[in-house]
Amino acid sequence: MKTRRDFIKNAMLSTSALALGPNLFASAPTGNAPKRFIFIHKGNGLFPSAMVPPTFSKGEMQKEKSKEAFEANLKNHDLPEWMSSLNEHKENMTILQGLSGKMCTTGHHTWQSSLGVYKANERLSSIKWATVDFELAKLFPSPLEHIELACFPSGGGNARGNINGIEKGFSARGPQQPNYAFGSPKVAMQELFKSVANNKDARIKYELERKVLEFAAKNEDGIARQLAGLEQSKIQNYAESIESIRKRNTKIDGMADVIRKHVPKLDEKYFADELSTVDRQIGHTEILLSTLISGMTNVVTFTVDELGTLYTGLDDIEKETVNLHDVGHGKSVGTVKAVEVREKVRRQHMGLVDTIVKRLKAVPEDGGTMFDNTMIFYFPDNGETHHSHGTEWPFIVMAGNNCKLDISGKYIRLPKYGDEGHKTLGNWYTTVLNAYGNSVPHYGDFDTGLTQYGINQSGNIPQFLG
Fold first, then answer.
1. pLDDT in tens, 410-455
2. Residue 400: which of 135, 139, 48, 94 has the closest Cα?
3. How many domains does the chain divide into?
4. Which of 38, 112, 442, 454 is the most core-located residue (most Cβ within 10 A)?
């Protein structure tokens, strides 16, 4: 039976790289456009100091320096220079400071921690529950449920150097169930848009995979009836997963005309096996937009880099290969200081965010635009710096007019770690989930270190709910 099970698992992976949840085919509320969520996370930390508008008053700067809670209206301030590409979107922006995440894994590689709010490592047994992006995907079902894209590291962490493949990602579908991410625009294009491929060989492959799944589903279901206990359960799960993928394919086939209209139109260089990190990010961004605009998914998670990602293609140092680990330890790249390299990386990321916002603002939907129903989260995978402690976890949030949180257009600094009213990643994700229909009392693990301060860690952030 081992050979048959391995065959089925390989068939499922090559067919979708995505297992489907139980609420996949539930309908969105009648008359309402679905809400969409994009999680963009980076490696090597994100300095809280880099997030501060340079035009703050002396009093605001003093509060910021002492990490005292306060709010400021972004329309009255300039953004930090590396955020300048988002200047025209300030009314949709939130700079959120002061969250902590000490209950997460911090350091070099953090796996599912920053999205799941628990300590994770490379062992599947460390995955406690579905990450927040998957919980949101359940609230707004779509044919593909969730898509994950990644600029995988060349060594260490997730992917183990297979930067162009389909590998374990940074999200999780459930306990001990890692998600799988597409490592290159080429493989994402091949897998996500093969149902509308013009290439004859690709169409033949797609039809063959459908036949394989049909055969496997029928045979494994029959075999399961002949087994007992754990083996029966395993085979039945495989059969049900395959059947879910078949149903998904049927729904995708019914969307063929819409999907074909939104197939990414990219230059061939973005589908090469060897491409710069910057080009990889641009290609992934186009894939991300196409899947959202076509309705294939409502939730995308995008790892723009990880600590082991070797950067190439950055402005002014295009020919340099940037080692983010070395930059994290303060090493210069040629004549460019480490802090300046960090800024170049962040500026590149903001360009991607600007592309997403502008494109979605240009797509009409329900009397407004697609962006009105979208939230984008940009944040570090491992906290405030290279060797972080998790006491701060900065976020940039971009949200449209139909956002259910009262945060847009603001710089918000929450009480610092240990102060009364301090909030964690768990409180933040609980707030987002509560706002959009998941009434979970608290999402994520608690920080045992906060108990000495007598801080109630449970629940949402009430002032964000209006």
1. 999 999 999 999 999 999 999 999 999 999 999 999 999 999 999 9
2. 94
3. 2
4. 112
